[in-house]
Design goal:
By secondary structure, the protein is α/β, with parallel strands linked by helices. It has 28 helices and twelve strands. A four-stranded mixed beta sheet has the order 9-10-12-11, with helices on one face. A hairpin with a 2-residue loop joins strand 7 and strand 8. It is globular. It is an enzyme of class 2 (transferase). Pathway: Protein modification; protein ubiquitination. Its EC number is 2.3.2.26. Keywords: Ligase, Phosphoprotein, Transferase, Ubl conjugation pathway.
Amino acid sequence: GLEEGAKNQFSTLSNLITTINQKKEGIGNRNSPTRLVLPNIKNGRDLPPLCLDVRQKQRMSIDALPQELKAPFPPEPSLPIRTKTVKDFQDDVEKSKASGDWKAVHNFYSTTFDSFLEINAAFKKDTNSPFNTIEDSGIDAKFVNVVYDALLNTPQDVQKSVLKGIINGLLQEWTGPRTKDDLRAYCILLQNPQFSNTSTYVIYAHLLRQIAALTEADHHFLVHWSKKISQKRFKQVVDRLLQFISLRLFPAKPEEFPPMVKCTWWIPSATKVLALFNAANSLISPPIISYTDFYNSTLDHIDLMEEYHNWQCYGNSHRFSFCQYPFIISIAAKKVIIQRDSEQQMISIARQSLVDKVSRRQKPDMNMLFLNVKVRRTHLVSDSLDELARKKADLKKKLKVTFVGEAGLDMGGLTKEWFLLLIRQIFHPDYGMFTYHKDSHCHWFSSFKCDNYSEFRLVGALMGLAVYNSITLDIRFPPCCYKKLLSPPIVPCDHNTLVGICGVTLDDLFQIMPELAHGLSELLSYEGNVEEDFYSTFQVFQEEFGVIKSYNLKPNGDKIPVTNRNRKEYVQLYVDFLLNRSIYKQFAAFYYGFHSVCASYALLLLRPEEVEILVCGSPELDMSALQRSTQYEGYQKTDLTIRYFWDVVLGFSLDLQKKLLHFATGSDRVPVGGMADLNFKISKSETSTNWLPVAHTCFNQLCLPPYKNKKELKQKLIIGISNAEGFGLE
């Protein structure tokens, strides 16, 4: 990129930049929208939300514009005729490298980037075609890539001429709506690699400001054009925007940038443009890049709760908050927000209980500050159900568990044990609440009808309590379950409103019942006569307790044959029946159970995949990472016993490694922050080496006697971790 001292060469541009500041203040104020939400237009497509409107307290669906806008397009100015091809340009570059004379290349760059019209003249595939649709931007991507790849290897005066030209384009007076040529120019300029250098950030900021201030219709075009950019270039643009935000928040050299008070619009503008790329990424299946590539870990170090409270108080008003754009906040940061929000709710509920007690002139009791659950191991499910049903008002208090007949004190370990055993029992096939699908290795709700769905509410409450108390669970639900759990993310006030109903596709069914989904996929692609060969109707059959029952997918479905013309409708209704309608009562109880504990506007920040990570943690164990982050008490990491321990553990099978993790921490899942977040400690046990290891799961601590050799350590450790149910006091 540009060298460290290159910024001095741009000092001559300061007057032009000042002019941008003066002119764009007025232009930005005229054109800047209050939020990046596309209007509802009939026959539109669905675009992912660019930001959240908390004033409505619900997720927004954004209806995109039709492929061709019905409003008349602004007339496109005639473009200059430019005939240089990719090969011509490459030949010029090679000649310049050989001769040292860069005049031809310099002329090309200075002319091409001198205005938006020239950019289009150079890079538009056909200057005589309007390219006014979302399907084709008309940009010659190969030529753009070649020109940008060569740019950073040209002399500084060439690079400087490009930046001067961009400033000329940004200073253009806009008298009406942007043309599609203008949007093409913006799309091309965003890919300029020069903007990776902090010395260009003032120019970059003004480019971003103009793009952020475009109309919703223009954003619609940019979103659809951006999804056609190659994965490599797409990722580079996203990384460049994230770096811009990070360095503006925490500049390595503050003197490089204007004072923050004079450029408060930098970060909001960059974040809004990043939202366009996030929307484009969500339109593709599979996405161009992972949703985690939009995370900005720098935000982990700002005052997240202030951001959260600003978002709650001001919504999407003129006050900017990163919570308006949750895709940029990492799962670790979202976990912090949810935990602190939970803690504040716990404190508030406990304080109210104390005030109520004192106002009735009753003696305060410490137990009133907690959700105390007392259960018998032999009646685990029924006792837990009774306790949670009786103590609905206390669900938002800190959880404490007592096993009847055991002397263990719950400092966190008993709670983990309770969750583990309860989940294991409820999800057992003999219990009948959930069906385990071997092909997909996940559980799904049983569609059997019953009189009481309270146990499904219990499972939902358990998941809510786990998130609320920062416990990870070994639950194997498909991604569709978490999508339904956020439909809607806030419990509706009207109890007649349907909950847990979301748009489902054949892809969702593939994740649960791959064999059935494959059969339906074959039906869709069948080239013969569907009606005559399959002889199916809009009716499905299910076995319930040995009895075959039929259900119509639509009114009079048993009389409507499935044909080549209506088979798509049949498949969609079939999938909706399996994943929504047939299990509605079961899932509604589960939904209300989860939200009875976890009701929080912080859920609006989460994607379904992130809810799954918060509930289940990560199943992938990295014992080497655990070794690096382990703390020691009474031992040094170089001691022989410790070296024996890690040699044995790293050689364990995955099953034994999970047992060790469960033995020491009460869970075999890895928390959101990875192994380092476990705060795992190995302490020296001053007992006979005949003793087995002991664990304090409340503190993620393993007490290890100084065994004499590796064989003895391995034998005692395996015995200990394989017989680890129950608690006692030493």
